[in-house]
User: Fold these one by one.
Assistant:
Number 1:
Amino acid sequence: MSSANIVEQAKRTAAFAAVDKHVDSSVRVLGIGSGSTVVYAAERLLELKNEGKLHPDLLCVPTSFQSKQLIVDAGLRAVDLDDLPVLDAASASFASIDVTIDGADEVDSELNAIKGGGGAHLREKLVANASRKLVLIADSRKDSETLGTKWEKGIPVEVSPLAWRTIKRQLERLVPQSRAQSAALASSAAFSFANPKAELRQAVRKAGPVVTDNGNFILDVAVGSIYDPLSVEQLIKMIPGVIEVGIFSGMAKEAWFGNEDGSIVCRV
Ligand code: 5RP
């Protein structure tokens, strides 16, 4: 098997295992992430549907145009987050999604993640936030001790096109430590680069900026190793014009990684 096929197989193994563990006929509302690994999750959902193992009225919440297509192609019902019926109005939780299965670009040892390689992280974070459980699926190249050490393209940051150059300059002046607002940053560096580099994400052959499903641009911000994901997420989020940051701190409950030898690692 070619190395590309081995990686695809690893993604598929992780996706199938996560779906089999978390999706059965008791799941009423399911969030569907974006990216190439989630394609395999949709493949497994179609099999389970054909075997009659899904809830007959299952609602699936998409995180992108691609994700909606996957849901529809699997013969499942797509419903936007805010169009979900309130099934349990008396619940103390606002979360309306039982479980969301999504991919990731890098996941650290505490299940903090970098997401947004496909530019869908705004809706992915909205859906994750409304989920009782976020389960990540990936091949083992994404399994990392410290964020920023494996995914070297930088943190995807969705920004308003109205001020992307200003936001880029501001991101490139982020300081790794004490001058920042957060108390946590005062005592230890949150990331390693003294001068972060922010690149406007371009379409192939520099055919212009990538435009997200929401009509915004993406800046990929290389900050080196991310020692304090929550502080970095907060620091970037505070910049006016930043719509969403592709750091998901403390959101995932579980991550499944497929290895090249066919084995799987599940981290909780
Ligand atoms: C899209 C994402 C994807 O989930 C992430 O990029 C992983 O993609 P893939 O499964 O293709 O590696 O966050 O915004």
Note: The first strand starts at residue 29 and ends at 32.
Number 2:
Amino acid sequence: VAQNPGEPEFHQAVKEVLDSLKLVIDANEDKYRKAGVLERFVEPERVISFRVPWVDDNGNVQVNKGYRVQFNSAIGPYKGGLRFHPSVNQGILKFLGFEQTLKNSLTGLPMGGGKGGSNFDPKGKSDREVMAFCQSFMTELYRHIGKDTDIPAGDIGVGGREVGYLYGQYKRITGLYEGVLTGKGLTFGGSLARTQATGYGLIYILNEMLKHNGKELAGKTVLVSGSGNVAIYATEKVQQLGAKVVAMSDSNGYIYDKDGIKLDVVKEIKEVKRGRIKEYVDAVPTAVYTEGKGIWTIPCDIALPCATQNELNGEDAKTLLANGCFAVAEGANMPSTLEATELFVEKKILFMPGKAANAGGVATSGLEQSQNSLRMSWSFEEVDEKLHGIMVNIFAKAADAAERYGVPGNYVAGANIAGFEKVVEAMMAQGIV
Ligand code: NDP
């Protein structure tokens, strides 16, 4: 903590992981301590920070902060998204890069961990302003990335439009047409099913966890927070599998539709108009919009936090449990506070942490890289099937590690341990670097 002041999210993420790893460390005490494995594991290999100047529509120069955290390259080139949101700072990106390292390891694909972004807020900006920002951001970032070194992707505030502008600028500066970014448009190297991948993957692993514990998704009532990329496609897959999503949200408030969310209305608001979730009630007058936090007070069987970090606290967890919620799978990164996570684990509900549950996005990004290298495109079904296989496998790894270390059903410990084992093996084999 003293070495990384002012980075509470990073401390939180590290603490949760180290708590789980105690079991592994104790079992490998001499080997790990001597090699300084943990000290190296929690320190990013490199943090790059830079100035991003751009011109707004009034002709004024604006300046934002840009970052890339290259956390760990033991098992492959750095890979992880870019986040554009006013809350972005170095500590948040370090937490995300740290989590990403374990997540990428769990996918079984050769990808190291990284994360980047800016405190730029795309909300309310014109297309031209977003393009100007992206071009300036890439004018600095390009020198630190490449298809074999570091491959960024999207995250909060960075969707298809932003990836397109970033890619265009990279190509213009370097002259290279290569798979340096994932989440690209389908006309220039993007993969089918990447847009859906995180949300679909979340439901594939949720389903696996339910099946493994003698339960099923069909007929259940589900809450999904957020209304962005992950939330929308998680909702789509939940509905395809016969369960009912009754609520979604954004940072202003939440909607409750007892008849089940009409996803075409949400997609129109969020993907086409870039509007607010409250507009849902204009199209569906029987639904109710409530300003502020509070989505977790709605009774449900299953909760899927898909918005952002620390959006579900200890009180929310207690309310969910009191209302009979028996499963939580995290679409977002670290949406549950430490207190909430501990409560879910203690009460032994079915709880799948983000680094396992939302790994489908980066896994499909890995598949996009493979297609770019092969100069081929696979069909939607092919990619979706591979994604499904990867999520089933991640569940098996987390469940197996939890069993091996005597905490069966604790998928928090299982995911942390399974992700860690591969990275640490590779780090030790590569010497003191
Ligand atoms: P989007 O930008 O598409 O959507 C984010 C959603 O979360 C929006 O509804 C947004 O509401 C809401 N939100 C963001 N910040 C806050 C906040 N501070 N308080 C309340 N609500 C907030 O992002 P994604 O759907 O891509 O990402 C959501 C989460 O999933 C993030 O944690 C991300 O790291 C994680 N993730 C995403 C992956 C992907 O492939 N996209 C892969 C793996 C993880 P508003 O519009 O009001 O800001």
Note: The first helix runs from residue 8 to 27.
